[in-house]
């Protein structure tokens, strides 16, 4: 059975996703065009799906997801969901501009300064290894490369 293409704006969040996307964001006009095209395909979608069984994911949602993946060069559906989760809940919007997800609650904690110092030390080791230590490229060679070639 074909699932219904409903928008659940406030189901899992107190902020509507539509409010989180800037009004001048480039995919907005594309979304309107896609929605118009998908409405025209509604009868075709209905003909493809059975009336029996559980509701499926609406094909409209799947096609919108595929378009996002193509526009933003995202390789998999799992990565798409990770990107959506990362880019929507981790950005707060105020009247002037977007601020970082790291706020005063994080930076005032004593462990934050310690973590920044340790992170710097770790990154210095990797930086040295890549620039001076010559480990920019892996030097591992497969055993098969050195094995004698056997003729059949």
Number of domains: 2
Classify the secondary structure makeup into a structural class. Answer: mainly alpha
**Tally of alpha and pi helices:** 8
Which strands sit side by side, in order, in the main sheet? 1-2
Largest sheet: 2 strands, antiparallel
Give a short synopsis of this structure:
The chain has helices at residues 17-20, 27-40, 42-48, 59-71, 77-87, 104-107, 110-131, 143-146, and strands at 92-93, 98-99. With 152 residues, it is mostly helical.
Describe the structure.
The protein contains eight helices and two strands; from the N terminus they run αααααββααα. The protein has 152 residues and is mostly helical. The chain folds into two domains: 83 residues, no CATH class; 32 residues. The protein is flat, with a radius of gyration of 25 Å. 1% of the residues are buried. The mean pLDDT is 78.
């Amino acid at each position: 059975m074909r699932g219904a293409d409903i928008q659940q704006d406030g189901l899992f969040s107190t902020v509507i996703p539509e409010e989180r996307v800037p009004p001048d964001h480039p995919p907005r006009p594309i979304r309107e065009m896609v929605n118009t095209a998908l409405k025209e395909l509604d009868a075709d979608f209905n003909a493809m799906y059975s009336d029996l069984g559980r509701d499926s994911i609406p094909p409209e949602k799947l096609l919108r997801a595929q378009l996002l993946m193509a526009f933003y060069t995202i390789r998999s559906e799992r990565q798409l969901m990770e990107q959506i989760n990362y880019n929507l809940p981790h950005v707060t919007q105020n009247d002037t501009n977007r601020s970082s997800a790291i706020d005063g609650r994080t930076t005032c904690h004593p462990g934050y300064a310690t973590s920044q110092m340790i992170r710097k030390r770790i990154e210095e080791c990797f930086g040295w290894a890549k620039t001076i230590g010559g480990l920019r490229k892996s030097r591992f060679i497969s055993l098969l490369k050195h094995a004698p070639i056997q003729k059949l």
